[in-house]
Amino acid sequence: MNIVVFTKRVAAAQEEELKIVRDGEDLDISKLPFKVNDWDNYAVEEAVKTVEKFGGQVTAISLGDKESDEVLRRSIAMGAKEGLLIRKDDPIFDPAVRANVAFNFIKKHNIVFDAIFTGVQAEDDQFGVFGGYLAALLKIPFASMVIGIDEWKTDHVVVKRELEGGMSERVRIGIPCVLSIQTGINEPRYVSIMGIRKASQVERKVFDGSEYMENIRSSIELLRWSYPPKKEGAKLLSADIDSACRELLEILKEKGVYQ
Amino acid sequence: MGDVWVYIEHREGITSPLSFELLGIGKKLAQERGGKVCAFVIGENIDSIVKDAFAYGAEKVYSVTDPTFKTFRSDLFSKAACGLVEKYGPDVILFRSTTQGTDLSSSMAGKLNVGLCADAINIYHENNVLKMVRAAFGGRFNVTVANERAVPKLVTVRPKAFEMPEKKEGQEGELVKETISVPESDALTKILDFVKSAVTVNLVEADIIVSGGRGVGKPEGFALLKELADLVGGAVGASRAAVDSGWIPYEHQVGQTGKTVKPKLYIACGISGAIQHLAGMRTSDCIVAINKDPDAPIFKIATFGIVGDLYQVIPKLIEKFKAKLGK
Asked: Residue B204 in contact with residue A164, Cβ under 8 Å?
């Protein structure tokens, strides 16, 4: 069983200050701390858990600048056998382009896999498109929002997917396939600094990302960053609970909650 | 410039009015582009969906029916959809950014090898260029993008980002029936069964959400929020802190790792307003925050605020609301 996991290093947008620069042309994220994409952390854990159970090996791949090596070391510390970096110093915003690069890379290096795991989405741009797009390019089946793997056979897997409205479905899906992994599917293992240090001794191969750009037909053009309409802050209702509730009832009425 | 297509999603033939919501913005964009707004529906028994698509304003409906399309499967549906696209050449295709819409659009985009703009919160034309606005970094920034070189342009749209179109029963249009069948043996996926979670809550469709966070403090508190939600005809939401504490199941979670919602009214009880939570609800039409801490970040984005203990406010509100309803 060979599982390839795509893992991305993302800016952790917590409470830090982010700034729009160059008249909306760009966003300055240099001051932000970076981390592994939350969803990918679950995907790596699920891949490692799966090979621990069924045998095989996990290969972690990251597409990004040289600092993305950090998420590969982390994956190796969690149990991946090797880490490959497709190095591209300018960030690629469009998931269609990312998927094409991944596709070209897989084809060029003839990477053999039973399944590709990705996170459902990346925290930074929240597209959630990469996995489905890559599967379509590879012409293999895809299941998104995977919340459980029930069965793993030589020619198929049975997975549980999260749907809307408290529904889920069990799907049998042919191998090879692409699965996008949802948070909460497992408890990602703790990675110690010692573990990462040890993982650093495993060689991570680096590839020049510009060599995998062929056949990219169109991409989304980023025009402008802006701030959403500023909210003035809450209009505070009376400090007296009784009056506050009365005012709130009026608001509910205005919103058509009752007549 | 030409036609704007809207994908009508359904689960084994069952729709909700929101399945048709994009016919509203679709019509506006089509008029601006000098084309028609068209719906496309793929399924087994979809006659009533086709009728409703016309009622909600589709000028043309493309339908593909076959028993293999009974249940949504992204590989089969995208084969059928790409067949339609190649034959009829739409200009823009809109999907809801739900699980189904995202699965189908990303699979189609990969097959057609075109860019895809996901989860747009606004779409408009400027100098004949179709521009899409997306939220980034938990909604603290917007980014405007274009996808001019792509034919067709695929866009998924955040649910409820646009007004519902008016439904006019009996409205008719042109129906194009297409036969595209994919043999079951070609299907690489098979749905084995649906599992209904013990908890069924549809936050994305709810018009009113009563949501609780760390300040709720205990599982019983959510029973109180449920009482209010039931009274006002809403659903119960929760922050990750409340879910992680085990007070309420994950299905209720709103935020970056939960659902992104846009109800008419969001009542946040004991929610401080961490960026991850705000990412999932900040575009709600009206936000009422109830929190003991006057400095809680939630008050910065709320429309109305009550600084107070939810355990005093909510029972009082329930009592007054019942009195109004005469219960």
From this structure: yes
